[in-house]
Design goal:
This protein folds into two domains: 66 residues; 58 residues, no CATH class. The protein contains six helices and no strands. Helix 1 packs antiparallel against helix 2 and helix 5 crosses helix 6. It has 144 residues and is mainly α.
């Protein structure tokens, strides 16, 4: 089974799971409404149920905001002489990429893109791997 088929199947499964989750939230809200209806008039019970949904949405947004919020530590200023320009980066990449790697990329473009995306995801998500890549690149550029 190709990766496109797997992506399509996962997309359909995610869509169905999202719809079922929305139905579950709807029925849970209706159950809360019915439970409040015993103690309050219908209009008050409806407003309280809607307020509960609004509070839950605000709570989810706050949790998401704090989960992705990162304090940015001021990086020490670099000398203008030690900064790298695009030509330096291109020269380093040209020296690192061998003809064998270039041939493999041309033979397997889809796998190369997926490997690049996965590497970017791992480096972007994990602090340890990001720091390791930074250290390797720092050593690589300092050797020059």
């Amino acid at each position: 089974m190709g990766w496109r088929s797997r992506v399509q199947i996962n997309t359909v499964a995610l869509t169905i799971a999202t719809l079922l989750g929305l139905f579950a939230l709807g029925f849970a809200g209706f159950a809360v409404y019915l439970a409040l209806l015993v103690h309050y008039p219908p209009n008050i019970a409806a407003v309280m149920t809607a307020a509960g949904y609004v509070l839950a949405a605000i709570l989810v947004m706050l949790i998401a905001k704090f989960a992705v919020y990162r304090t940015k530590v001021a990086s020490p200023g670099l000398d203008r002489s030690s900064t790298l320009d695009a030509d330096d980066l291109e020269n380093v990449l040209q020296s690192v990429i061998t003809p064998a790697i270039t041939k493999m990329i041309h033979q397997h473009p889809g796998k190369s893109v997926m490997a690049t995306l996965l590497a970017g995801l791992v480096v972007g998500y994990n602090d340890e791997s990001r720091n390791a890549v930074k250290n390797v690149l720092k050593r690589l550029f300092e050797e020059k």
